Amino acid sequence: GAVVSQHPSWVICKSGTSVKIECRSLDFQATTMFWYRQFPKQSLMLMATSNEGSKATYEQGVEKDKFLINHASLTLSTLTVTSAHPEDSSFYICSARRFGVTEAFFGQGTRLTVV
Amino acid sequence: DQQVKQNSPSLSVQEGRISILNCDYTNSMFDYFLWYKKYPAEGPTFLISISSIKDKNEDGRFTVFLNKSAKHLSLHIVPSQPGDSAVYFCAAAKEVEKLTFGTGTRLTIIP
Predict the structure, then answer these.
(1) pLDDT digits over B69-80, tens only?
(2) In angstroms, rounded to a whole number, what is the distance separating the alpha carbons of residues A44 and A67?
(3) Residue A15 has pLDDT above 90, yes or no
């Protein structure tokens, strides 16, 4: 159990366009989902925490208007990178957690390249 | 402020030997610790965890040790296998809050 699926695995988009990344918990209800960004050879940087049915909580320095997060159901959260720029190119990873459980399970990640 | 630190960016170990990955933390409020393994271009995979009420947790070839007084935890892998080559992240949490990750250690197992 505890499978988290992230889609797409990779995406190339033109500068100025928006990209949506989906994160689904396949076999459990995820009351909390997290979105991370990883730069080459660096740690995972938490971008935001989303709880089902409520607004996401963004970490300091993360633009909420640029990185739109929606957690509409207990099994789906989406991250939309709006008006993407080349500096947004990165590896984005989601994770999901059941209520009251600390372990978080991760999706496969999405490699975003903005050209 | 890096609350969880992995001071060794890389580690090479001979196949069959023990791999020891270390992690230090500064926040004494952390009460749950986890280790994740990550291959390139993939999401992290949960390996093993330990609660602050314990000092050791074992799961097959993986053992995590926690020294609360030193604010230090370590992951032991024995025997090390080529498939263990990956980046290992330790993470810490306070109650059931968000995870704080270390910077990672790249483990290379030499055949």
Answers:
(1) 999 999 999 999
(2) 16
(3) yes
Please list the helix, strand and coil fractions of chain B in percent, rounded to the nearest 5, in that order: 5, 55, 45
Residue contacts between A and B (CB atoms, under 8 Å): 52
In chain B, alpha helices (H): none
Cα-based distances in Å from A24 to A7, B34, B47, B90: 8, 22, 21, 24
CA distance A96 to chain B (A): 11
- Tens of pLDDT, residue by residue over A74-84, are 999 999 999 99
- Which residue is listed with tokens 């949506």? A20
Name the residue type at position B48.
Answer: I
Structure tokens at B104: 């990672």
Q: How many CA atoms lie within 13 A of B37 on its CB side?
A: 13
Measured between beta carbons, the chain B residues lying within 8 angstroms of A111 are: 41
Residues B41-78, buried b or exposed e (16+ Cβ, 10 A)? ebbbebbbbbeeeeeebeeeebbbbbeeeebebbbbbe
Query: What distance in Å separates the CA atoms of residue B84 and residue A21, rounded to the nearest whole number?
Result: 29
The reported pLDDT for the residue numbered B95 is: 72
In chain A, residues with a C-beta closer than 8 Å to the C-beta of B36 are 106
User: A10 and A21 in contact (C-beta within 8 Å)?
Assistant: no
How far is B43 from A13, CA to CA, in rounded Å?
21
For tokens 């196949």, name the residue.
Answer: B15
